[in-house]
Design a protein that fits this description.
Helix content is about 5%, strand content about 40%. It is mostly beta strands.
Length: about 110
């Protein structure tokens, strides 16, 4: 059972145009990436698991895949799974709640 008191508001839904990820900085933790794709929202860590690249700043979104342009590793933003090497470690993903025209996630257990 989810505890809504643990939800953190990341941004307004209209701050994330379809196909254009948004970086969200929270205190005391690495940045997050919010994606709006075909009407759905997804949240992952923003930092590539292969290096210090920001996927929102240095990545290219193609469908559900985000490509890190540092070494061309690719992740599926829905699951965090590695789609293309050299990345081997999946990207962390977060369950998204949409409420009050905003994107929320829980960091509980993350
Ligand atoms: S830093 Fe992202 S693929 Fe190497």
């Amino acid at each position: 059972m989810s505890d809504d008191s643990q939800l953190i508001r990341l941004c307004a839904t209209d701050a994330v145009p379809d196909g254009h990820p948004l970086k969200v900085e929270l205190p005391d933790r690495p940045p997050l990436a919010v994606y709006h794709i075909e009407g759905n929202f997804y949240v992952t860590d923003d930092t590539c698991t292969h290096g210090e690249a920001s996927l929102t700043d240095d990545g290219e979104l193609d469908g559900f895949n985000i490509e890190c342009t540092f070494h061309f590793g690719i992740f599926d933003v829905r699951t965090g799974e590695v789609v293309a090497r050299p990345c081997t470690i999946p990207l962390k993903t977060y369950a998204v709640t949409l409420r009050d025209d905003a994107v929320w996630i829980s960091l509980e257990g993350s």
